[in-house]
Amino acid sequence: MERHLEFDGVINFRDIGGYRTSGGDSVRWRKLFRSGSLHYMTDADVQHAHDLGVQSVLDLRRPSEIAHQGLGPLTTSPSAGSVVTLHALPVIPDEASPQLDEKYGRGISGARYRGYLEFGGSEIDGTDYPSYFVTALELLAQESTYPALFHCSAGKDRTGVLAAFVLDILGVDDETISDDYVLSNLAADGLIAQTRRDVERRRAAGEAIEGAPSNSPPAGWLPVPLDGISVFMAAVREDFGSARGYFEAHGVKAATFDRLAEALLE
């Protein structure tokens, strides 16, 4: 089956099916998809998603990103008989970027990805901030969620972390997980075009965008580093023993992992 799926207004849309596990199973095709933001979806794109059977969207973006970009028509303009459920799961809060920049630098790195996990289970402005990666996994352990699509803005960093978590828990080897991660570099031109369009749209609306790029993403966003996800997974194993150990540390039970495998493996 085709892994990369073409959409008019969505970058980096692909199927994570077909990967083999150490136990000899395969990840089911056309069950779980990953992509960039959906806010420029065309009517044809919406129909394409419906044709794929998408039932649920797990939106990993921050609230401020959703406010700037919008949700797009897939979850806001249901077609007859084709209602798609939206789950807003801001895996890092709006306050995260300055803290991550200060601690890990502005460029993308495996160490910065590990920093994403520092917010889940912490207190922010006096309120407990949950681990939305855990919420995402629990949703993906429910058959009613499928077929499902998860995305952030570019579909490469937060999306890449969740994809790595899922594939690792299912038993896909590190090399394959890394290969899947770096496929996002094929979407670089689309990401640059989308960023330019976002900035131009906001400026046309009279919005002052201090420090916003005029025609490309910020330096260090592209390409994703070839070792980014492997460095991240090594850090997770050092801290938690395994990807599964991270979720167990946040209260996820064995039955959840079993249901995830049942939903996604054949």
In short:
With 266 residues, this protein is α/β, with parallel strands linked by helices. The chain is 43% helix and 9% strand.
Descriptors:
12 helices; single chain; five-stranded mixed β-sheet; Protein-Tyrosine Phosphatase, Chain A; alpha/beta; two-stranded antiparallel ribbon; 266 residues
What percent of the residues sit in helical stretches (DSSP H or I)?
Answer: 40-55%
CATH class: Alpha Beta
Share of β-strand residues:
5-15%
How many discrete structural domains? Answer: 1
Name the overall outline.
globular
- Distance from N terminus to C terminus (CA atoms, Å) equals 15 Å
CATH level 4 superfamily = Protein tyrosine phosphatase superfamily
Q: Round the Cα radius of gyration to an integer and report it.
A: 18 Å
Please give the largest β-sheet: 5 strands, mixed
Q: What is the residue-averaged pLDDT?
A: 92
Strand order of the largest sheet: 1-2-7-3-4
Low-confidence stretches: none
List the secondary-structure elements in sequence, H or E: EEHEHHEHHEEHEHHHHHH
CATH-derived architecture: Alpha-Beta Complex
Structural class given helices, strands, pairing?
A: alpha/beta
Walkthrough of the structure:
- The structure is a single chain.
- With 266 residues, the chain is an alpha/beta fold.
- It has one domain (14-264): Protein tyrosine phosphatase superfamily (Protein-Tyrosine Phosphatase, Chain A, Alpha-Beta Complex), CATH 3.90.190.10.
- It has helices at 43-51, 63-69, 73-76, 96-104, 110-116, 132-140, 158-170, 174-182, 188-204, 228-240, 243-249, 254-264; strands at residues 14-15, 32-35, 56-59, 85-88, 122-124, 127-129, 148-151.
- The strands form two sheets. A five-stranded mixed β-sheet has the order 1-2-7-3-4, with helices on one face. A two-stranded antiparallel sheet has the order 5-6.
- The radius of gyration is 18 Å and the shape is globular.
